[in-house]
Write a structure and sequence with these properties.
There is one protein chain. The chain is mainly alpha-helical. The chain has one domain (about 1-190). The protein has helices spanning about 1-30, 40-60, 70-85, 100-130, 140-155, 160-190.
Length: about 190
């Protein structure tokens, strides 16, 4: 059953990556006629890493043999939230004179709201994997998730540009630390 579900999850998460990569491509192509915002660029990198980490994490579900429609619907819903979050980063078309900083701040509540929702959806998804005996929840998860959820809420709550300059750097640092430390736990345990 996971093979069937995995295809749809891959399509949705692949479209999330496609959105971000098209945004990067358009930004490079239009670099002389648009205003690039470095904070948005770092968030785009964060989203690429996040999508890849979730995609990798979804692979644990392949071991589940007894599927219910609710689980299928939940995982697809989670992937759709991630897609929508990725879609908020760049306009669908870049035109001459586009100000990506203004675009980012116009859409920041949607982006950070979806990022926070993705974090909230990650909790039952991660716990369900443990309950089903597919994967233990890494100890680092208990620190990582509240931290990045707080960053998401902060991004949603404030339009202060100095705060927004810190958020993606803090997020990517926490994300890379979590991925590295939780992988080290599996390496040393194995």
């Amino acid at each position: 059953m996971f093979d069937y579900l995995g295809v749809l999850l891959s399509v949705i998460l692949g479209l999330a990556l496609t959105n971000v990569l098209f945004g990067f491509s358009g930004m490079i192509q239009m670099r002389h006629s648009i205003r690039i915002y470095w904070v948005q660029v770092v968030w785009a990198v964060v989203v690429v890493i996040y999508v890849l980490a979730v995609w990798w994490g979804m692979f644990w579900w392949r071991q589940l043999t007894d599927w219910r429609f609710e689980e299928f619907l939940f995982l697809i819903g989670y992937a759709v939230v991630i897609f929508m979050m990725a879609a908020m980063l760049f306009p669908t078309t870049l035109v001459e004179g586009t100000d990506l900083e203004a675009y980012f701040f116009r859409n920041r509540r949607w982006f950070f709201g979806l990022l926070a929702l993705a974090q909230l959806l990650d909790v039952p998804e991660t716990l369900a994997k443990q309950t089903a005996g597919l994967r233990d929840v890494p100890i680092q998860y208990m620190l990582f998730l509240p931290f990045i959820f707080a960053l998401s809420v902060t991004g949603w709550s404030t339009s202060n540009k100095r705060v927004h300059a810190v958020l993606p750097v803090a997020f990517i640092s926490a994300q890379l630390a979590y991925l590295t430390l939780s992988a080290l736990d599996r390496i040393t345990a194995g």
